Amino acid sequence: MPKLHPVRKTPISSLFSLSVETVASNVVMYLESLHYLPVHIKETILKKLLRTCRVLNDLPVNKILSALLSPSLKYINLSSVNVDDETLVLLQQCCELTDIRLRNSADHSFSSRGLKNLFKQTTNLLMLDVAYCQQFNDNVLEYLSRNCKNLHELCLEGCNVTDVGLAYLAQNNKELRCLTVSNTNISGDGISYSVKNKNWCNLQELRLDNCLKINDDVIKMIIQNCQKIEILTFYNCAITDETSIFQDITKTCKKLKQLHWTITW
Q1: Averaged pLDDT score across all residues of the chain
Q2: pTM
Q3: What is the pLDDT, as a whole number, of residue 56?
Q4: Residue 205, beta-bridge partner list
Q5: Sign of the C-alpha dihedral, residues 243, 246, 249, 254?
């Protein structure tokens, strides 16, 4: 009698999952009906559209968002979508948003004013990623710091920010835990002023890669004032005495998990 091999069971998608996939794949066809769906189904379809990186830019993005956005939405990632000021106006209704991702915004056409108007309505924001968004300048950073005081994580990599905007952030945001200012014009003076502010004593992550004005003294200032730091990166900065820095940080920052820098030979 031949030996029977067990048949591997392939999971079958639920009717709900298949329905979401069908609507997401043919979203323009169902556009007029999306408004009538329950909120949780709208949010599931929206996540599906954005997570699968569909070519939404060939579709009426703002009409789709208008049909799917809801005030209870907590998270949205529009990094792969062409975003304009109309898009940001639509997001203003999502007053419960805690996490917004708008990185890689070379194709975005929104304005600094559009960002400020958005932050006025999204005061519950905890995480913001606007990496390489040139519209995000010191004026916008000041507005963000004054309106979103519970911000925990902020990525400003490649943004048009300076020491002026950083000072506002240090003054107004006591809850900040993670900050990325890599590839910006932030200087040693700006970082030193900010970390000496007691508001940042609980900072856990700071990324300064390719900030050419950051030197040994600045890193030592960070070590002295941010002793709860867990991740500190300063790749391609103006560091000359790596040994001294390493000794100081291992003595002072007991929670350190990751350290990333350039070795000078």
Answers
A1: 89
A2: 0.88
A3: 63
A4: 178, 231
A5: negative
